[in-house]
Amino acid sequence: MNHSKEDASKYNLENFSHIICGAGPLTCEVAKNFEEKFSLRIVHGYGLSETTCYSCFIPIDLPEAEHFQWQNGFGYPAIGIPIYWNEMEIHNEQGQSQEEN
User: Does 62 or 101 have the greater pLDDT score?
Assistant: First the structure.
């Protein structure tokens, strides 16, 4: 669908508000091209396929500028925030939990 020569008008996406992406690397370029081509937000997420479906997503209700920052501001799309009933931590190389930010 996202190929540069693909005709986006042949897809009826009027009932879609966003597209969920996961299960593989997503580059900023691919995300940006898709969002521009189809006028749909990509909601990037993360989850270990061996244990669960998704653990976190980029919030779907972000203002446009903030969504753009989450998708492009880090050199790769962010994986978002934990979904309900999930807890997440980031650990350093020594296995110590890190504070937010």
Answer: 62
Position 47 in a domain:
yes
Q: Is residue 35 part of a domain?
A: yes
Mind giving me the DSSP string for 40-80?
A: -EEEEEE--TTT-S-SEE--TT--HHHHHHHHHTTSS----
Helix axes 64-72 and 28-38, enclosed angle (nearest 10): 150
Residues in the chain: 101
CA atoms within 13 Å, Cβ hemisphere of 57: 15
Note whether residue 98 is domain-resident.
no
Residue given tokens 């020594």 in the structure block: 94
pLDDT of residue 69: 93
Class of residue 14 by CB neighbours under 10 A (exposed 0-12, middle 13-18, buried 19+):
exposed
**The token pair that represents 94 in the structure block:** 């020594």
